[in-house]
Amino acid sequence: MELKVNENKVLCRTVDGVTYERYAIPTRFVxxxxxxxxxxxxxxxxxxxxxxxxxxxxxIIALCQKRIVxxxxxxxxxxxxxxxxxxxxxxxxxxxxxxxxxxxIIMICGLPRVLFAAACSAVTKLFxxxxxxxxxxxxxxxxxxxxxxxxxxxxxYVNYGILNPENPNGVCNEIQEKLGFNCMxxxxxxxxxxxxxxxxxxxxxxxxxxxxVRDNPAGQDDECTPIILVRPVKEAE
Length: 237
Hints:
about 240 residues; alpha+beta; three-stranded antiparallel beta sheet
């Protein structure tokens, strides 16, 4: 498949005086248990040039690792149904604002921690501070995807929750070792970006890497472009 730039996204972004081209790589839908090495070999490797690196959605690595919890195994209780009503919905999605996602967070963190996180969040919101609920819960619960209760392009994401990938640094190093190029794994949406892991050969710091894809060139909808090829622009001599 050919490289492209997603609709309403731009090709280039300049960070710390360096301009980077960001090409979206169209792929097929990633299935649970796919081999991420073979996936990168098929869709990304043919496009790679010296100096390029990849920005990979955490979601596809987690799916390959089978880091999922099925909806049928989640049974929202009283507290999940109550607490989800107080979650702020953002343009990036409902977050923990659905009973199933809130119950999954309770399953991961335990009810006492979730109740404490909710209380802290209620207080800090009065002072304009956001995101405290997820910070207090910890366990990377802010990265849970799926379990969507509204109409989406990929119906599979209704049926299960997707946890953050295991050992993202190790995954990136494995990709670098077996395929010969650097990469990072990011949790990105149209309002925030977090670098979860990167290969050892990728010397840029996490803040710089996050800025390179701050505008989420992978897109937020049904683009099916979970891999972004990042290419530093060579200045004319």
